[in-house]
Amino acid sequence: MRNKDAFVYLWFDTKNRMFYLGYHKGTPDDSYTHSSTVMEKFTKTSIPSYMRRRILAMGTEQEMIELENKLLDNRKEKCWVKYHNVTVSFPPPPMYGEDNWNWKGGVSLDPEKVSEMKREYYAKNREKVRERQREYRAKNAEKLREKEREYRAKNAEKRRESNREYHAKNAEKLREKKREYYAKNLEKVRERQREYHAKKKAEKINSNSVDLSRFMG
Fold it and tell me: Cα separation of 44 and 71, whole Å?
């Protein structure tokens, strides 16, 4: 029986009308989703409702690598603007230099250029990015809280030490910010203080009150 330890897949992002094609060594039922650096990240248990995946072929790892390259070459010639993919071969070519797929007359996607492109994308699509982040946080709220709790538990002493170092290095700056805040928000601070003292006074009165039903019983 022919070995089928890899497959070629195609994701369709219905919200943005974009595709992502790739290969993976494993099975369609494992936890892998994709390796795109452009398309949004998600896990097998948190696939967005607007993402659809098709398995295009299964076979040996080498067969699937060759098929992926062939299909990506075809897509690049015909409709590359509809794909989240940024490379057309595996292993990926160098990020910059003459061997890069985007090399044009001495200009390629060097790391600095990639960073600039990302900054431009976020500047133009700020609200779209924020909306995706909000959707992700809403769908994974408990998972994110659990990760935060685990991180805080594992790094409690490190975080305390970091806070101590920061306050020690920035003591005067922090005091200045505090003075500026009090100067700009004096009435707000006083109102909070009045509310705090009123609350404490009410708690004290309640703690000294007598349960008359028990007293008279």
Answer: 24
